[in-house]
Amino acid sequence: MEPSDREQSSQELDLEEITRKISFLDKWREIFSYHRLGTNNTTSQNREGNHISAGETEDGTGIPQPKGHGQWPSSSLCSIPKPSTISSKSGGFPISLAVATKLRQSLFGNTLQVFSSDWTEAYFRFHDPFSDLAFALEVGKGGARSIQMAVQGPIIKYLLFTRKGKDCNFLSLRATSKREQDHALAAALAGALWAAGAARKATICLVTEDAYVAPTPDYSGDGVTERLQLFELLEKEATEKFIYDHLQCFKGEGSRGVILFLYSLIFSRTFERLQKDLDVSTTPLLRPNAGGFPCSQAVLNMILTGRASPHVFNRYQEGKSQEMLSGVLTRSDIGYLQWSKDTSEDDRLSQVGSMLRTPKLPIWLCNINGNYSVLFSTNRQLLSDWKVERLFDLYFYSGQPSQNKPAHLTVDTHSHHWERVRHEDEHRPGRRFSPVEMAIRSKWREATINWNGTVPLF
Fold first, then answer.
1. Which one of 76, 151, 201, 402 is separated from 22 by 20 to 30 angstroms, measured CA to CA?
2. 85-103 pLDDT, tens digit each
3. pTM attached to this predicted model
């Protein structure tokens, strides 16, 4: 080869190298400006409709079909953030004005009301991995808080009793990694949606770049509902994988992840099933109160049981006007306890039935004076072996910013020291027991609770 030919070849190689590096830089520039990603992103799908995982496409969007499972994405490069907004070409069903109107009516009872700021700012975010609260979500205020706490129960279920290769103890919860947090959240959200869909189909809502519904005099836009695409999945495993691939849409700051989960819950349940679940006493799923929108019991029961039962008693009861009211029909994995200083024990309709008080697993969502929290045991046999129920430990997570680790309680159900002075709350004269203890006693009536050196919460 002549010197001139070698020089020309070398220049061509240099140009190719420069072009390759520019392309590489452009790719990373797109990643770091991920809020604008998706403009040119489309879903990769094969001929059979099996979607490709997030590790194989830039945004990993798609609708897994019944036979399409794929593998969980590897942990390499998992720290690279993905967009909370997906491409409009992702293959879902765009929302229509009729569906958006029906959704708004179900939530608020009208089409002009929109979510308050505590809802629009809410998403699913964990505390730091490998910490005393590595298993726990950071929760906000207002109505969205109750949904975050309701999802906390299935997260604990996954970390303690579902994932393989881990012991069922508190140390394993503290050792939760970021990757395990992501898997737990995906499993919790998918499990709730699959149960709401009667174990037949789940529908997931994601926000796209484009709006499909324009505001009208009878419908107020909120900037989210009008941009929804709906994805239907026909297998639980495919549902969990799809959520995992799009987890940033639920856990990213500014993603409105809690609203998207609530929407997905309603669409998975379907408007028809929802109407059958509810009874004549039911108000809209969200109720205006002091500037916010607390969740109705129907929403919480839908997360816990898959059915939007508006009451907490067992099965059906007759109301004050002889109308038939609908309660909880079956035991679920996660239970529910409540106590309020304003509730009378004679009010039978407000008393939690055994279906919720005795779940399949020792995990309870608690409503204590209107504040939502979670109570759980690491012993799976607690509710299936009466000998275990004599003396046992519980952990209590309130979600309060001041709580840096769950309270460790020891419960003795065979002591009879209800009147012991040492259980008095010295800071509240006339109050012998903390509200948390009262909630526990709604399940174990004459139990004594030792806080093991922790100041009683609430």
1. 76
2. 888 888 899 999 999 999 9
3. 0.79
